[in-house]
Specification:
Elements (H helix, E strand, L loop, with lengths): L21 H7 L1 E3 L1 H4 L6 E9 L8 E14 L4 E14 L6 E15 L19 E2 L5 E3 L1 H11 L53
Parallel strand pairs: 5-6
Antiparallel strand pairs: 1-7, 2-3, 3-4, 4-5
Length: 207
């Protein structure tokens, strides 16, 4: 197997605003909903999500903050959460290794149920539905974990700078769409050098 070509030097990324800390992002993406829980089923509340930098993990770097809209609808059990968000991923093309920015449109649709009864303040038995999204003990919707999960799910497995990216040259490692790539005839394995003058019977020059 041929060794993987070395990467060409890449220009440094443009500096971007420092991401907020996880605590700041958590605060920005936490919404008190006690008032909405006290409303009758069918009541709807909409909130704008101002741009906020989210730490999505060591393997994921964002090029733009997360922003969008949040719609909460009261049900007889809890809340229906419907968020439409946008951000962008700072990554590299899987073919030519150039730095690229991949837009991500995120959609969150979940049902969030109380973990504490609003009227009595008693804890709810969460073992009955262990996998459902829960509001906090203070009747708050903590959206940050859902945003992180949506980012992870929306990431492309093999991002490309463009659909017809030709990739890297196997000889010099530079992108194939950068200049000429004429590296001459391929080198012959020394083990086969003795076969260079070999001719098949009938192909030899007559005396």
């Amino acid at each position: 197997m041929s060794p993987r070509p070395s990467r060409s030097p890449r220009p440094a990324r443009s500096p971007r605003p420092a991401a907020t800390t996880s605590r700041d992002a958590a605060d920005a993406l936490t919404f008190p909903v006690a008032g909405l829980l006290a409303e009758p089923p069918g009541t709807v509340r909409e909130d704008a999500i101002a741009p906020v930098w989210v730490d999505a993990g060591e393997e994921t770097a964002l090029a733009e903050p997360v922003a969008g809209t949040l719609r909460l609808a009261r049900t007889n059990r809890g809340l229906l959460v419907d968020a439409e968000l946008h951000t962008a991923l700072a990554t590299e093309c899987s073919r030519c290794l150039r730095d690229i920015v991949v837009p991500l449109d995120l959609r969150i649709e979940e049902e969030a149920l109380p973990s504490v009864e609003l009227a009595s303040g008693l804890p709810v038995d969460t073992a009955i539905e262990p996998d459902v999204v829960r509001l906090s003990d203070a009747h708050e919707l903590e959206l940050l974990p859902l945003v992180r999960e949506a980012i992870w799910l929306a990431q492309p497995i093999a991002p490309v700078c463009r659909d017809d990216c030709p990739g890297l040259c196997a000889e010099c490692g530079r992108p194939l769409d950068e200049g000429e790539h004429d590296h001459g005839p391929p080198e012959i394995d020394p083990r086969f050098e003795a076969l260079r003058g070999f001719t098949v019977d009938g192909d030899a020059d007559p005396e």
